[in-house]
Structure formats: structure tokens, C-alpha cells
Design goal:
This protein is an alpha/beta fold. It has a seven-stranded parallel sheet. It has a five-stranded mixed sheet with strand order 2-4-7-6-5, with helices on both faces. Helix 3 packs antiparallel against helix 4, helix 13 packs across helix 15 and helix 20 packs parallel to helix 21. The longest helix is centred in the last third of the chain and has 18 residues. The N and C termini lie far apart (about 55 Å). The protein binds one DNA strand through helix 2, helix 4, helix 7 and helix 9.
DNA sequence: GCCGTTTTCGGCCCGACTGTTTTCAGTCG
């Protein structure tokens, strides 16, 4: 049993206990589940090394939960969990994805209508059975249906940033295997799309048999879908389908290109080949010697294929047929921002509000990552649920940061900031006189998501007109697979941002990625610079910056287009005050 | 059920929002 499975079970226990109306236990299980999800070491290793005692060392895990983890590791089962599940046998992971449906409602729906999963929930809602239950009405039934509709649309795609580390573990393991000469991930993962449908791995191997055998018997595998000599496919326990293909060395580049896609990009490449009288497929680029007799002229690497097609090499993130082929032909491709180009992070939530770590812990973690500065941007007072800062608390935090900067010698430099809440009418919930004292001011929408498009656009534009607001955080408010963006005219926001010298953000948190690639591209085309921030709520989240960079690369951003690729003194010159 | 440089017992984030009610329960972050 791996960490992921154990964390899921603990979190589900939390939900079951919430159904029972338990007051504090649910949070304990929830916290333990989350702590385990964030761990790098495997529980079974920890247990092997130090037994129960070592498990209890894990934060949020005490005697009782440690024993449960032990039972899971030893037997693969947990009696306690099973008895809870027996009492209310519902598909929690499915039902909790419906917005507005929580444990209490799930329990009621099960007891009154025997609803167990999305399918039976939708059926009951469509039949008008839910509105008749006490405490429910037409509106709640309608909202359930709406949410199910949204879930269906967002489909079964995985958020890249939440799954990539698991993918990397598998690839690393295969890479070390004897007989694997070359290996690469292809598909939408290689293009760093925000969500991915499956995992495609390509390898070169003289003896693929043992590699395939190894692949289908990995511990993450739940089901083997295919097991052949050149292709195997498995379904992983986390629900992801993974394909492994073996190709010949001379075809590796062609296969990589073919399976990386996008389909549209590949079609455009193939058209160029055809115009030259050639053909391009997953085995290579070929020209015809005589009828039905083709000679390979490229294919071992992607580079030589692009070169033969008279194109500059196109980075995977740009392969969407959004005009990149034209640019490659004319040697006008932008030099994309690199994955190590950020000098700082401008959005971090600390334990002053809803973050998990202290300012100092973030500073040390950022330094380790090579960042020169970080902005502390805790929430403000109208976001009461996070313990948002009022003016007084912000001033206290500023004084605290001054002291900490002295202590750490400015490495990294800690900037005083805030994620100021934009109120319904576009005004801010912190007084301008206090904003004036901050190094960097960001503003964001956290409520009233349902305003009409024009009103929402006006609201955010008004915030940008504030003389102290430098950045708008997560400008469209979407959460991938959970919530669509609010209605807002992004192009208008881009214009206003330029006019008011405000920047828009690419929030790098894996299920936000907001602005998304298309919008980032539009902003950059309009000459607006962007910020890439982690939106970290714990020091582990700082690593999410790379997904923001990926999104920027997908939007064709160069280093110059991103404000926080600059050292702090240069960035300072770009800010309003 | 976890945790402790306020505590080994007594706290545990808590207010906005929604949809249902007519004073509130449940969800969300």
C-alpha cells in the first residue's frame, strides 16, 4: 500500500466521521491524510525502519492513526474503515466532487434515497426526488444537476501538477532498468498541458521483453490492459492509464514527435513533408526512391526531423499549431522562459493566515531553491475564514519581516506584500495608507463569483486603478475540475492592466494555472508583462512554480515577459510606487 | 484524535454564503 492509498483512506474516514456528527476527529484524520500526501518518504519504508514509533513522528499522526496505518501496511485492510464503509456504502470520492454536497448531505441522500454514486444522484435529481426531501428544494436540486454537468464536461483528466511526481517516480525507475537505452515521456505531459488524459512512455531497448514484464508488474499497477512485445498498457491505482512503447533507435525521434503531438501540430508537419514529396510517421521521415520504396532521411532525433523540414526546433510546450510552425519556418520563434529563470516568488500564504509554514520556513526553503526574493502575501480581513489580516496585523507583519530580513541578511529578501480582497464593488478591504507601506500589493477576487461579465470586468478594473495595486492574482478565478472561471472579459483586463501599469498573474498552483496558456499568450501579444507565482500554502508548494513557468511557455513567454525573472532592484522599478 | 516556548487536559479557524427556513444547517475555503 502506498502513501497515496493510505492518505485517501484516512481522509475518507474523516468524511465518514463528519457524517456521524463527530466534532473534531474528522479534522484529525483529514490532517493526517494531508500530511501523508505531502510526504516524500514512503510510509512502508518508515515503518520498516522504525516501526510504530517512527509513524508517530509524522506530524498529525498520533498513537491511534499510527496503529491504523500499521494495520493497512500489514494486511492491506483496515477494519475500522470497513465498518464505516459498511454503514454508509457510498462512493465518497465521487459524491464529494459535487459542489455543495458534503458528508451530511451524502448521509441523508443515502438514508432517504439510497443514493450511492453520481449516477444514482443524477437519476434522483432528474426525477425530482431530491427537492421533496426536508431541507432541500428546487434550487438545491438544480445546483446538484449543474455541478454534475460540469463534472462530466471536465471529464476524467488529471491535473498535471498533482500527478507528475508519481509519473517521474515510474520513469526514473524504468530508466535505471537494464536494457533501457533511451526513455522519454511523450503526450500532453511532455507538452506540460494543465491536465492530462494518460501517460505515454517511449523507450529504446534491444530486449524489450523483461522491460515490459517489469512495467506491468510495478506496484502502482491495478490492472493490465495489454502486455505485448512493443506495447503494454496498464491502469494505475490512481486511475491513470499508462502506455509503454518500445521503438527502434533510428525511429525514436519520430515516435517522440508523433506521440508528443499535438495532433494538430503533427498534421501540419506532415503536410510540409508531403509538399516535399516525403512522408512523415512515427517511424521516421522518408523520401521515395521508387514506387513503394522509401528511404529514411530523418527520425532518430526530433531535431533532425525539424531541420529536414526547414523548421527551427519547436519546444514541446509550443506544439499546438497556434502559429508556431510559421514562426519556425521564418526563424522567428521566441526564446521561451527557462525552467530556472525565476528570481523570486510573489505569492505566498503563511501561517499568519491559511498557510502551513512560517515566514522564516518559507525563506529558508526559497533560498534552497535558489530564489533571491519572496513576497509574503497573506489574505486580508474580509477573507475571515483564513484569519485574514486587518491593517493592524499587516503592520505587525511588516515589522516582523523587517526583523527577519536583518536576521537572514536579505538572503532571500523577504518582501512585504498582501493578497488584498477585492470587494463586490471593486474597492479594496485594506486602507490605501497601509498599502502604501507594502513592497508589493496584489489584489484578487474571492467572493461574488456570479456577477454579470461587465460588472465583474468593471470590478477588477477598478481594483487595478488603485495607485498601489501591482498585480491581480488568479485573474479568472477558475479551479480546474472544480469550478469554472467567473465571467470576465480578459482582453479588457489586459488593456486596463497595461493602462494602469498593473500586471496579471499566472498562478502556478496546479489546479489554478490562472491565467491559462491562451490568456497568457494574448497578454504577451498585447505587450503586457506577467508574474508567475506559486500561491504556496506550504513550503512544499514552492516547487509548483514550474507549472506556472510551463503555462507561460505554453503562452510563448520569454524571460523578459515575466516580471519576476528580474533581480529585485529591477523589479522594483516596474512597480507602481 | 492530535497537540503543547500559554496547557498532558482542554482546546481545536471561523465567517460568508446559500438555500432553506423564519432562526439555521451545511458547505466552503
Amino acid at each position: 500500500m502506498d502513501n497515496w492509498e493510505i492518505a485517501k483512506i484516512l481522509k475518507e474516514i474523516g468524511e465518514y466521521l463528519e457524517m456521524e456528527g463527530e466534532a473534531f476527529k474528522p479534522r484529525a484524520y483529514q490532517a493526517a491524510g494531508e500530511a501523508i500526501e505531502e510526504m516524500d518518504d514512503s510510509l512502508s519504508e518508515i515503518y520498516k525502519r522504525g516501526g510504530l514509533k517512527a509513524l508517530e513522528e509524522i506530524p498529525s499522526v498520533g498513537v491511534s492513526i499510527a496503529e491504523k496505518i500499521e494495520e493497512l501496511l500489514k494486511t492491506g485492510h483496515l477494519k475500522y474503515y470497513e465498518s464505516l464503509k459498511k454503514k454508509t456504502p457510498v462512493d465518497l470520492s465521487q459524491l464529494t466532487t459535487v459542489e455543495g454536497v458534503g458528508p451530511k448531505i451524502i448521509k441523508k441522500l443515502y438514508e432517504k434515497l439510497r443514493i450511492k454514486n453520481l449516477e444514482t444522484l443524477e437519476k434522483a435529481a432528474r426525477a425530482g426526488k431530491i427537492r421533496k426531501l426536508e431541507g432541500f428544494g428546487e434550487k438545491s436540486e438544480e445546483n446538484i444537476l449543474k455541478s454534475i454537468e460540469f463534472l462530466k464536461q471536465s471529464g476524467k483528466r488529471f491535473v498535471l501538477g498533482f500527478i507528475l511526481s508519481q509519473v517521474e517516480v515510474i520513469v526514473e525507475r524504468l530508466k535505471r532498468l537494464k536494457g533501457v537505452e533511451k526513455i522519454s515521456v511523450a503526450g500532453s505531459i511532455r507538452r506540460m498541458k494543465e491536465t492530462i488524459g494518460d501517460l505515454d512512455i517511449l523507450i529504446v531497448s534491444e530486449k524489450p521483453g523483461p522491460v515490459m514484464d517489469f512495467f506491468v508488474s510495478m506496484p502502482e499497477v491495478k490492472q493490465v490492459l495489454a502486455h505485448g512485445q512493443t506495447k503494454s498498457a496498464v491502469r494505475l491505482k490512481n486511475g491513470l492509464d499508462a502506455d509503454l512503447r518500445v521503438v527502434e533507435k533510428k525511429s525514436f525521434g519520430a515516435a517522440l514527435c508523433y506521440f508528443t503531438g499535438s495532433k494538430e501540430h503533427n498534421i501540419a508537419l506532415r503536410e510540409i513533408a508531403i509538399k516535399n514529396g516525403w512522408k512523415l510517421n512515427e517511424y521516421g521521415l522518408f523520401k521515395s526512391k521508387s514506387k513503394n520504396d522509401w528511404i529514411q532521411i530523418a527520425g532518430e532525433t526530433e531535431e533532425e526531423i525539424y531541420k529536414k523540414l526547414s523548421l527551427d526546433y519547436i519546444e514541446p510546450e509550443m506544439r499546438e499549431n497556434w502559429g508556431e510552425i510559421e514562426l519556425a519556418k521564418n526563424h522567428k520563434l521566441p526564446k521561451l522562459i527557462g525552467y530556472h529563470d525565476l528570481k523570486g516568488d510573489l505569492q505566498i500564504q503563511t501561517d499568519w493566515t491559511d498557510g502551513a509554514n512560517s515566514i522564516e520556513e518559507y525563506a529558508l526553503a526559497a533560498k534552497k531553491m535558489g530564489l533571491e526574493y519572496i513576497a509574503i502575501t497573506d489574505h486580508t480581513k474580509t477573507l475571515a475564514m483564513t484569519g485574514g489580516c486587518d491593517e493592524k496585523k499587516l503592520l505587525r507583519q511588516m515589522a516582523f519581516i523587517d526583523k527577519l530580513n536583518k536576521k537572514l541578511g536579505g538572503k532571500p529578501k523577504i518582501l512585504k506584500g498582501a493578497e488584498v480582497n477585492i470587494l463586490k464593488n471593486g474597492s479594496l478591504d485594506i486602507d490605501d495608507r497601509v498599502l502604501a507601506k507594502l513592497d508589493v500589493v496584489a489584489a484578487a477576487v474571492h467572493s461574488h463569483f456570479n456577477l454579470p461579465r461587465s460588472e465583474m470586468t468593471r470590478r477588477i478594473s477598478r481594483a487595478m486603478a488603485n495607485p498601489f495595486v501591482d498585480i491581480i492574482f488568479h485573474p479568472t478565478g477558475r479551479i480546474i475540475n472544480e469550478r469554472p472561471p467567473y465571467e470576465v472579459d480578459v482582453e479588457e483586463l489586459i488593456k486596463t492592466a497595461k493602462k494602469t501599469k498593473t500586471y496579471l498573474e499566472i498562478d502556478a498552483y496546479p489546479n489554478r494555472l490562472d491565467l491559462k496558456d491562451e490568456h497568457a499568450k494574448k497578454a504577451i501579444e498585447a505587450g503586457l508583462k506577467l508574474a508567475i507565482d506559486s500561491d504556496a500554502h506550504s513550503i512544499n508548494h514552492l516547487q509548483y512554480l514550474k507549472f506556472g513557468i510551463a503555462q507561460a511557455r505554453r503562452g510563448w513567454a520569454t524571460k523578459n515577459d515575466i516580471i519576476n525573472t528580474r533581480p529585485w532592484p529591477d523589479l522594483l522599478k516596474l512597480l507602481k510606487h
